Amino acid sequence: MRNINFIIIIIRKTEEEFLVVNSTCTHMGCTVDAPRTVFDNLLCPCHGSEYSRDDASVIWYPEGFPPKPLKRYKWIYDNLTQTLQIDFSVTV
Ligand code: FES
To answer: 20, 27, 30, 49: least buried by Cβ within 10 Å?
Structure first.
């Protein structure tokens, strides 16, 4: 088993579609907050970067170099067992 030393955020987009992201902000490494409602994006409390809840792309960032999208991971959902498997070795 591998240790994971970061927080992931999983957003259920539809019944069988998810967004699985590393919550480490690509601006300067703070931890991005999970959305508070189904309408909210992911916000970084440090300098205000905002990432899309649909695809983790950057919506807004502070002046300076633009951060990259949040790191997304490959996942597989099994509807029969209602199990979500996340592969941290594969980013998408
Ligand atoms: S570290 Fe997230 S916006 Fe700067």
So the answer is: 30
CA 49 – CA 32 distance, rounded (Å):
9
Specify the pTM.
0.91
Pocket test for ligand 1, best of 22, 43, 44, 71 (most atoms within 8 A of CB): 44
Q: Does ligand 1 have an atom closer than 6 angstroms to the CB of 44?
A: yes
In the chain the domains, ranked by start, together with CATH numbers, are 8-91 (2.102.10.10)
Q: Is 48 left (phi over 0), alpha (psi -120 to 50) or beta?
A: left
Instruction: Please state, in angstroms and rounded to a whole number, the distance separating the CA atoms of residues 17 and 11.
Output: 9
